[in-house]
Amino acid sequence: MNASTPMPTQEELERQEETLVLSRFDETTAVALGNALVAEASAQAAPVVVNIRTADRTLFHAALPGSAPDNDHWARRKSNIVLRKHQSSMLVGILFEAQGKSVGPDFGFDPLEFAAHGGSFPIRVAGVGVVGAVTVSGLASEDDHAMIVRVLGKML
């Protein structure tokens, strides 16, 4: 599936992260967000994995028809970069690229554990900061990212 969503700019990504902030986050919120993403993906027949996690716990995971085990690994790698950098995986990728650097030796991130490609977004709580990551994997990076932003925007 080709990306149908234009690549956002660094400024757009930063604005998304500033505005898509939750007032609270717990297991119930994770399930509601996960179910909303599954509904959105199902409506598009998108072959994706949806994953919501904190640094030490998976709160929601769904593999939709057509997704593959590889999508689970991409979701883990993209969410690892979010939990480490507290920025969306797409923004991290854009910032790295602007510096002419990559995940691997330039920053000491194992590329088998970290991926700076679109599709994982920080779960930020007002007055608290980043508490987790919400990830979609299976479409083009821009489309994975856009699905999260759309659904988070509707929830807020």
UniProtKB/TrEMBL annotation:
<dbReference type="InterPro" id="IPR038084">
    <property type="entry name" value="PduO/GlcC-like_sf"/>
</dbReference>
<dbReference type="InterPro" id="IPR010371">
    <property type="entry name" value="YBR137W-like"/>
</dbReference>
<protein>
    <submittedName>
        <fullName>Uncharacterized protein (UPF0303 family)</fullName>
    </submittedName>
</protein>
<dbReference type="Pfam" id="PF03928">
    <property type="entry name" value="HbpS-like"/>
</dbReference>
<dbReference type="InterPro" id="IPR005624">
    <property type="entry name" value="PduO/GlcC-like"/>
</dbReference>
